[in-house]
Each structure stands twice: as C-alpha cells, then as structure tokens.
Amino acid sequence: MSLANEWRTGVEERLAVGAFIRPEYLALLRDLQTLTHSFGITLSPDQHADAATLVFAIECVDRWLDAIPHSSDRKRFSDAVMKRLEGASFDDRCLVPELAIRLSRLEGVLQVRRISIPSCGVIRELLANSEVMRRTRNTARFVDGACREGCLMVELLLLLLRQIATPEFGRFMRRLSEPANLADKLRDARRDYAKGELAIRPGFFFHLWLAGAVIRRIFPLAVVSAHNPRLVAWGFRSLFTELILFRFSKSRAREPARQ
Questions:
Q1: Is residue 257 part of a domain?
Q2: Residue 16 bridge partners (DSSP)
Q3: Nearest-CA neighbor of 99 among 128, 61, 127?
Q4: Which of 51, 77, 84, 145 can bridge 133 by disulfide, Cβ–Cβ 3.0-4.6 Å?
Q5: What's the pLDDT tens digit per position in 80-129?
Q6: How would you classify the pairing of strands 14-16 and 6-8?
Q7: How far is CA 2 from CA 5, 7, 241, in A?
Q8: Has residue 201 been placed in a domain?
Q9: CA neighbor of 138 nearest in space, from 200, 190, 223
Q10: What gap in Å lies between CA 220 and CA 226, rounded to an integer?
Q11: Which of 187, 54, 196, 58 has its CA nearest to residue 127?
Q12: If you write DSSP's letter for every residue of 20-79 in order, what string do you get?
C-alpha cells in the first residue's frame, strides 16, 4: 500500500487512511515531504507517522464540526474535543468512534513528544477562530481569520517537528501559512457557502478581496524562495493544482442549478 494510503503509527501498528479523509489533507502530507527535503530536513518514519496522526485528527475534527448546524452544538462538540485531548472527563456521546480514535492517537503523540500543553492551547485557538470565521459577515475579518488559521496550523506542525525544524524552515512555513490557507478558502468559498459553513455570499467582491490577499502574500514569499529550485518548482505545481481545483469546484457548485 502506498504512503498516501497507509501511514506507520508505531513499531507494529498501522493506521489505514479511511475513505472519508479529504484529498487536500493527503496533499498536505505529500507537500510536507517536499518542503522538508527542500530545507535539507529528513523525517524519520515515526515523524512521518506523527505528522499523519496530527493531520488526520484535524481533518476529522474539521469535517464533523463543519456538519454541525447550530453554534451551541458546535461549542459542546469543541469542548468535548479539548477535554479528550487534555485527558479530562467529558460526554463521550459528542464524539463519534472515528473521531475518538483519531483524538486518542493524537493525544498519545502529543504526550510522547511532550508538547501536549502548548499544542492543546493552539488547538483551542483554532476551534474558537473557526467559529468566528463561520459566523462573520465581514470580508476583512474573514481574511484575518483565515490567515490566523493558517498560522496556527503551522505552529502545531512546528511544535511537532521542533527537534529537527531549522530556523529557515520555520520562517518559510510561517510565511507560507497565510497565502496557502487563503487559497484554500478562495477555492472552496462557493461550496462552503452552499453548505452553510460560510456566512458571506461569495460574490465577485469577495473573490477579488481574497485573491488580492493571496497575491500580496505570495510575492514576498516568491522573492525569498527564488534561490531554492525545489521550492520554486513546488510553488508552480501547487499554484497550478489550486487553479485547476478552483475551476472544478466552481463548475461543481453550479451543477445543481443546471439540473
């Protein structure tokens, strides 16, 4: 089975990627390999597995949280997630078995790496920021929230890789976090609005504002990355992929209107 389909989670145990894992989260793991290699960082199998555990747990939380329509229920769900990660007692009826397993494995990784307290602090901020982004009707505030979400995600990753991450890698990832997450929001805006996960109607102005925010952050990143051919190649490939997926998501969002 390929690395994208199965990740090592221990000496003998294996965690198979479920059918529900969204492809963009699998892409994060592939991108992580490319980016670490570009900075001369080699991840061990255990470090690969820990990164996968983190990514899959976040994907699972995000997917189930997105499906909850009422803010009070989302708050109860978020509280249960945090209590599970912190080892506190909670109402386990709030967590489906898939999520409980993902969180249990993430809790184990955070404890072994001795980063449980700072990581839980970041995750708590992520959950609170997610609710602000979902409910705001102000485009500028949404952009700020998307940038913050990207930064917090990178901080989680850097905590996990703190023993091997170089200062150059950390600076690059922090610069990358904002335009990368904004590009994801730009691509998914129509779908998120249709599903009730975005309060702002994604019209021309919204897309223009997000596109401008991405471009303003990409140029400085491109300048500092120009000396690294691997990063340049990865950047062009990622930009091409985002554009293709963005166009596909637009046509897919329009399909119900044509039926």
A1: no
A2: 6
A3: 61
A4: 145
A5: 999 999 988 877 777 899 999 999 999 999 999 999 999 999 999 999 99
A6: antiparallel
A7: 5, 9, 21
A8: yes
A9: 200
A10: 10
A11: 58
A12: TS-HHHHHHHHHHHHHHHHTT----HHHHHHHHHHHHHHHHHHHHHHT--SHHHHHHHHH
- Rounded Cα distance, 172 and 225, in Å: 8
Burial class (CB in 10 A: 0-12, 13-18, 19+), 245: middle
Tokens representing 9 are 């989670």
Could you tell me which residues are beta bridge partners of residue 15? 7
Report residue 122 as tokens: 């970041």
Distances (CA, A) of 244 to 34, 47, 187, 251, 256: 20, 31, 10, 11, 20
Residue 256 lies in a domain: no
Calculate Rg over the CA atoms of the chain.
Answer: 18
- Name the DSSP letter for residue 235: H
- In 3-state terms, what secondary structure has residue 6? strand
Closest CA to 105 of 34, 143, 54, 66: 54
Note the pLDDT tens digit of each residue in 160-170: 999 999 999 99
Q: Which amino acid is at 166?
A: T
The CATH number of residue 190's host domain is 1.10.600
- Could you tell me if residue 258 is inside a domain? no
CA distance 132 to 110: 26
Expressed as residue numbers, the domain containing 227 is 6-251
Q: Model pTM?
A: 0.83
